[in-house]
Q: What sequence folds into this?
């Protein structure tokens, strides 16, 4: 059997084990069954093993680090999330957060699957060891921010629970899931839409030209996603907004700590990621910084997380305020990481069209 | 042999009687010796806690057990026999086993799910074992009971959700702080509940206490109890920011802590959370405090609400525990019935005859029809003669021993030596045997 086939099978096994593991984590959150947690963790670990193998195989068959296209980098991203979560779970009692983190990893991995492309040699522009350094570091920081997001979201929920403010618990779930639904819906819509491609004669960069019907498709997807997210949010919020749920979540202390650690380690990595990117840009494009959308958004994200650390360290912010920043921060990360690649055009758009 | 238990507990007897019936270690020893002097009683384990006094025993006839245990208990605890008779319960066989397992699973406790009973049973059993008042039956029963208790605790969440107000307060505080070690507690007022909650916190590692009271002397007194520091009531706002947990139980007719003070304190401590426990009625702490960022306020109603949900949770878990207990009782009864003499002898005979038939068949086949009918009969008679002679003495001895103290030992040895597991349900039974053996190890 050739490597590509094996990699494909391993990748599918990964997606399935993340899905099932996520189910067990959610079940653990609902029932607190230790057995369910053990099975979930075991599956997640096995999934991570398969995932690691798949990435290694991809590396071998393509001859470069698996981060050249959206499939590879998304796959690497979810790999980072799972790795950091398993490490965090080893040292902190954050098992409950798995109900959010593992399905997120599943989602990211399956989105990667949507963008699946076979191994191919690198686009000339990417042929540099900087790719390896730049992308790995950026992905690690994204994984840590995702962890900070998960812990931050549950911090907010736990705080409302402990304040006996059950209505806000519901709102939190509704908001999270409807935003998630909206984003996924928009993205799905944009996949269905089929914009014309126009090649810029000077830069040789393809850009999308959207027609009215394409916008309608995207908007329709957004509405559908929003409605589904809303419904799920109401359902989840109902289940979570009762006193007993507080017992299943980690303490505020732990959630705050994990969220903070996520940002505290993620921020320097993002900084290095941006710096290495600038160095690479200087070598590849002859300029350190060209206000390409990805560069702009990563700067915004950087400033945002800088704000998190600043308010925390000098102004004594902690708790809910910080947690909310960590939650919104991931939205920035997603815009930087996915939005720029998918919706905007610029120097960083290496995604094969379609 | 009859397994039985006689006893009183918080459901059947008033506290005065339970106090009298509460036995010291020495009294338990006397009770055992007295009972074992009776030829009809072969094993005794007394169990005495603050909510129950029970005597587990093995008697040759059920009436003996009841009568002897009752008069012994009345005699040693100096209770009128008539008073005791009114509140006593007496269970035999399966019901007795079920009773002990429910006690071990803390289903029979005043607070369902409490954890102490396991230790008490263990101590009672070890004491009895040391004074050699137990043998095969009660040894296995008690070891199995401890195993059942452990199973109930690990497989159900019966002990997980606290049901008392003070332990709920600690549980909620731990949802804010995780670890309570190294936290500072401010104790306001000298209420009993406040003190109890503080004691609970000490058991979770809290060692730093500030105490304040309108009467400074009272504060000093309480501070001494918790190895803490008394602070003047008027200067409260100067100390509030030092506290991670505030417990208030003053008799003040108005709020002692207001929102403004709490806001200032939180600013002073850079928003590190404060957990307020207000157990006073009327309330001591302005309910608006709960709206302050990183301040969490629980009053007596909130705590009672949580305790109520927890109690309901325990009820649910108790039903799961009952199922475990039923299963384990069945296991034990199964083992017990294997110790009956008659089935053991039958099994032994069956085994011997099976071997004999097999060997005969093999042997006769070798002769290949060279034998006359008469020869065959002779050989068969020889074989069955040997078997019968061999089995005669053990059978008689077993029957005789069955009515003696420790007679189960013979039956058990017989079963083990000859591997008499009984043909029916062989598989499930073997599993149980292994299980029970593991418990014994």
A:
């Amino acid at each position: 059997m050739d490597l590509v086939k094996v990699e494909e099978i391993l990748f599918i096994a990964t997606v399935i084990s993340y899905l099932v593991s996520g189910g067990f984590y959610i079940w653990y959150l609902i029932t607190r069954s230790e057995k369910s947690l053990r099975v979930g963790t075991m599956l997640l670990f096995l999934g991570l093993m398969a995932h690691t193998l798949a990435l290694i195989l991809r590396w071998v068959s393509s001859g470069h680090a698996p981060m050249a296209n959206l499939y590879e980098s998304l796959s690497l991203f979810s790999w980072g999330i799972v790795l950091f979560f398993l490490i965090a779970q080893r040292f902190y009692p954050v098992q409950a957060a798995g109900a959010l983190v593992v399905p997120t990893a599943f989602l990211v991995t399956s989105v990667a699957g949507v963008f699946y492309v076979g191994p191919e040699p690198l686009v000339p522009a990417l042929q540099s060891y900087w790719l390896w350094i730049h992308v790995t570091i950026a992905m690690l920081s994204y994984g840590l921010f995702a962890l900070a997001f998960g812990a931050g979201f549950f911090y907010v929920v736990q705080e409302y629970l402990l304040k006996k403010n059950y209505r806000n618990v519901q709102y939190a779930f509704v908001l999270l899931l409807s935003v998630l639904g909206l984003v996924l819906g928009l993205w799905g819509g944009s996949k269905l839409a089929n914009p014309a491609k126009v090649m810029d004669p000077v830069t040789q960069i393809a850009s999308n030209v959207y027609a009215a019907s394409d916008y309608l498709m995207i908007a329709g997807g957004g509405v559908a996603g929003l409605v589904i997210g809303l419904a799920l949010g109401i359902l989840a919020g109902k289940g979570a907004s009762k006193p007993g749920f507080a017992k299943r979540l980690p303490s505020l202390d732990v959630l705050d700590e994990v969220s903070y650690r996520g940002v505290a380690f993620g921020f320097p990595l993002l900084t290095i990621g941006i710096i290495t990117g600038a160095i690479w840009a200087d070598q590849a494009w002859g300029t350190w910084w060209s206000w390409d959308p990805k560069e702009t958004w990563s700067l915004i994200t950087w400033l945002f997380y800088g704000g998190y650390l600043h308010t925390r360290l000098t102004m004594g912010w902690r708790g809910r305020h910080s947690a909310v920043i960590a939650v919104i921060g991931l939205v920035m990360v997603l815009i930087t990481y996915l939005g720029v690649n998918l919706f905007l055009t610029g120097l960083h758009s290496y995604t094969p069209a379609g | 042999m009859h397994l039985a238990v006689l006893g009183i507990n918080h459901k059947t007897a008033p506290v005065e009687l339970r106090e009298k019936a509460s036995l010291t270690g020495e009294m338990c020893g006397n009770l055992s010796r007295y009972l074992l002097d009776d030829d009809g009683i072969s094993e005794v384990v007394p169990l005495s806690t603050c909510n129950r006094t029970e005597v587990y025993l093995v008697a040759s006839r059920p009436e003996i057990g009841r009568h002897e245990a009752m008069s012994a208990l009345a005699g040693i605890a100096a209770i009128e026999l008539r008073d005791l008779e009114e509140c006593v319960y007496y269970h035999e066989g399966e019901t007795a086993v079920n009773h002990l397992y429910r006690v071990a699973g803390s289903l029979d406790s005043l607070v369902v799910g409490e954890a102490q009973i396991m230790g008490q049973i263990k101590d009672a059993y070890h004491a009895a074992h040391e004074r050699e008042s137990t043998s095969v039956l009660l040894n296995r029963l008690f070891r199995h009971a401890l195993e059942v208790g452990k199973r109930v605790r690990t497989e159900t969440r019966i002990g997980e959700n606290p049901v008392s107000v003070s332990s709920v307060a600690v549980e909620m505080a731990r949802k804010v702080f995780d670890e309570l070690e190294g936290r500072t507690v401010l104790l306001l007022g000298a209420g009993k509940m406040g003190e109890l909650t503080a004691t609970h916190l000490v058991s979770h590692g809290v060692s730093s206490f500030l105490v304040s009271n309108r009467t400074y002397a009272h504060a000093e007194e309480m501070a001494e109890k918790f190895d803490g520091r008394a602070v003047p009531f008027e200067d409260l706002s100067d100390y509030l920011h030092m506290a991670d947990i505030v417990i208030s139980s003053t008799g003040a007719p108005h709020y002692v802590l207001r929102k403004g003070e709490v806001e200032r304190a939180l600013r002073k401590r850079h928003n590190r959370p404060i957990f307020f426990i207000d157990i006073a009625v009327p309330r001591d702490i302005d309910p608006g405090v709960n709206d302050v960022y990183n301040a969490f306020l629980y009053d007596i109603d909130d705590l009672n609400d949580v305790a109520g949900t927890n109690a309901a949770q325990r009820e649910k878990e108790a039903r799961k525990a009952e199922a475990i207990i039923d299963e384990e009782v069945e296991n034990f009864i199964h083992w017990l019935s294997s110790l009956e003499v008659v089935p053991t002898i039958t099994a032994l005979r069956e085994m011997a005859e099976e071997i004999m038939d097999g060997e005969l068949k093999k042997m006769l086949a070798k002769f290949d029809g060279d034998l006359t009918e008469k020869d065959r009969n002779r050989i068969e008679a020889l074989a069955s003669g040997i078997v019968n002679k061999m089995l005669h003495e053990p059978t008689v001895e077993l029957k005789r021993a069955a009515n003696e103290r420790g007679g189960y030992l013979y039956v058990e040895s017989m079963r083990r030596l000859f591997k008499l597991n009984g043909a029916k349900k062989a598989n499930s039974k073997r599993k149980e045997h292994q299980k029970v053996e593991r418990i014994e190890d």
